Amino acid sequence: MFSGSMVALATPMYADGGLDWDSLHNLVEWHIEQGTRALVAVGTTGESATLDVNEHLEVIRRVVDQVAGRIAVIAGTGANSTTEAIELTETAAKCGADACLLVTPYYNKPTQEGLFQHYKTVARAVSIPQILYNVPGRTAVDMLPETVQRLAAIGNIVGIKEATGDMERARTLKEMLPEDFAIYSGDDATALDLILLGGHGSISVTANVAPAAVAQVCEAALNGDAETARAIDQRIEILHRMLFLEANPIPVKWALREMGRIDGGIRLPLTNLSAEHHAAVREALRSAGVL
């Protein structure tokens, strides 16, 4: 089971939108040094929606090859087409990813039965461990706990990234799901609370810019040391808010550029962080001690 701080890795780009492989390499090494337990390649923060298929898979290949087993690599392979999700998941498995993260099919708004059949079909087609990803604020579909419970009975569906930030939902999932079924936070502001409820870690945006602190929060919380976890989390709490002033990954990519870790590239229809937010995000980075 994967646990602890898992960064939803940003995909570095040049100003013209080309992929910046050198910066990606440097980010991977930095995260390993800082205590990140797993890298999630080409999820939402990695701009999966704007990369073409070849680029998507090349990012996964490069991250897997570079990590070389030192920490886990989880590949984002979700799609709103079940066939496409199978193809991405198959290729990620061949690349050597440790697991795949599959967002609920977006835009076409499947029923709960449609969600069940989608994930069951992908899981039966590819044996790699698979993590569900529920983020209704972005996909316009909410995978209910009853559906997650049905899917948890499928052997290679091993966990869920729950990004609603709803602690009642988290409690319900914890009560309904088997003990060995992992529950990960997909909401930085409530990640600590979810882990203290019995969750297994955080797939984090904030960890892109404060990897050591997020790793320390997760480790303390997993060890039951709530006091230490809250003290560290308080220092980076402002980042949990400021990195979502505009749609992810707009603020976090601007922050990484401000830190000198990546170039300023981001792909349309996403645009660079609005100037009115620059001072607030910069001050948050300074307050958190990462700038």
Automatic annotation (TrEMBL):
Family: Belongs to the DapA family.
UniProt keyword annotations, A-Z: Amino-acid biosynthesis, Cytoplasm, Diaminopimelate biosynthesis, Lyase, Lysine biosynthesis, Schiff base
Gene transcribed to yield this protein: dapA
Entries under SMART domains matching the protein: DHDPS
Catalytic activity, EC: 4.3.3.7
Residues of the signal peptide: none
Role played: Catalyzes the condensation of (S)-aspartate-beta-semialdehyde [(S)-ASA] and pyruvate to 4-hydroxy-tetrahydrodipicolinate (HTPA).
Chain positions of site Part of a proton relay during catalysis: T44, Y107
Name of the protein in question: 4-hydroxy-tetrahydrodipicolinate synthase
Major localization class: cytoplasm
Top EC category: lyase
Biological or metabolic pathway of the protein: Amino-acid biosynthesis; L-lysine biosynthesis via DAP pathway; (S)-tetrahydrodipicolinate from L-aspartate: step 3/4
Subcellular location: Cytoplasm
Enzyme active site: Y133, K161
Residues that hold pyruvate according to the record: T45, I203
Gene Ontology molecular function: any one: 4-hydroxy-tetrahydrodipicolinate synthase activity
Subunit (UniProt): Homotetramer; dimer of dimers.
Pfam (any one): DHDPS
HAMAP family recorded: DapA (MF_00418)
Catalysed reactions, as listed in the record: L-aspartate 4-semialdehyde + pyruvate = (2S,4S)-4-hydroxy-2,3,4,5-tetrahydrodipicolinate + H2O + H(+)
Domain of life: Bacteria
